[in-house]
Write a structure and sequence with these properties.
The termini are far apart. This protein folds into two domains: 1-44, no CATH class; 85-271, no CATH class. It is of the alpha+beta class and 272 residues long. The strands form four sheets. It has a six-stranded antiparallel β-sheet, with no helix packed on it. Helices cover 28% and strands 32% of the residues. The protein is built from six helices and 15 strands. The longest helix has 16 residues, at 33-48. The protein is elongated and about 120 Å long.
Length: 272
């Protein structure tokens, strides 16, 4: 066979060759060499279609998974804040009892004794007390401990309860316990009350088993308590802006046998 006839057979074989894509489709060379590249490219793009926008889809999925964690700090802070609201309410109640930023009228029952409290200072009114303003229509003077019953109303700076004994003082005290023997003495020559727990309770039960507190806020004083208060645990029995009335038991009747209580004005030495 002549060389040109063998070349013709090889060329015919090349023209008849085909290209197989991933889907099993055949791209024959005889379908047109001028569009073969475009058709292969289109097929490849078709195979890669599921991978299009893969990065953004992964980002969206991750965003969904962590969306609940975006405000985790604020959620924890809010939870802690809400959990501490009862503690803050107690602080607010003590501010009102002490007349911080206003005037407080405290009425003790069953004795009916009234004291006026302004910014931690207790006063006794020798006259009548204006229930709307807390002002004394008469002589207003400091309340001082003059007899044992006055200890039922305070004020006390130092307080210790140990081994069924109570020690109170308007100044600082030193309490010593040696072999179950309790002694109490003042460190600054202030008057003290030193009694057995049961005797103290019997002394005060007929004087001040509970107290009604009426707090009248001075809205010009920046330290006053807002009434009504945004803290839901600050509860008043009345419904009057700037005035809060509440009743509570006095602490002396809640003293339990065996408790050891020592506040900041008391020094305690215990050796048993």
């Amino acid at each position: 066979m002549m060389w040109w006839s063998r070349m013709l057979m090889i060329t015919s074989g090349l023209i008849a060759c085909t290209v197989l894509n991933a889907k099993g489709q055949y791209f024959g060379v005889d379908d047109g060499l001028d569009t073969l590249g475009q058709r292969i490219s289109a097929s490849v793009n078709e195979q890669l279609r599921p991978l299009q926008h893969l990065g953004s889809r992964i980002n969206n999925q991750v965003a969904k998974q962590v969306s609940g964690l975006e405000n985790l700090d604020s959620q924890i802070s809010q939870s802690v804040y809400q959990g501490l609201e009862p503690v803050r309410a107690m602080e607010i109640m003590f501010k009102m009892i002490d007349g911080v930023g206003g005037t407080t009228i405290t009425t003790y029952y069953p004795s009916g004794k009234k004291l006026i409290v302004m910014n931690h200072q207790r006063y006794i009114c020798e006259g009548t007390v204006n229930q709307s303003t807390g002002e004394c229509n008469g002589n207003l003077k400091y309340f001082h401990i003059q007899n044992q019953k006055d200890w039922c109303y305070g004020p006390t700076r130092s307080y210790t309860h140990i081994n069924d004994y109570i020690c109170l003082s308007v100044g600082n005290i030193f309490v010593q316990v040696i072999n179950d023997r309790v002694t109490c003495q003042s460190t600054d020559n202030s008057s003290i009350l030193f009694l057995k727990r049961e005797d103290y309770q019997n002394l005060c039960r007929d004087q001040a088993s509970q107290v009604e507190v009426k707090y009248i806020a001075n809205e010009n004083d920046p330290s006053h308590v807002e009434i009504p208060n945004k803290n839901p645990h600050v509860r008043c029995s009345n419904n009057e802006k700037g005035v809060c009335i509440f009743t509570q038991k006095t602490s002396f009747d809640n003293i339990n046998t065996g408790n050891v209580v020592n506040n900041y004005g008391s020094s305690l030495f215990y050796n048993n």
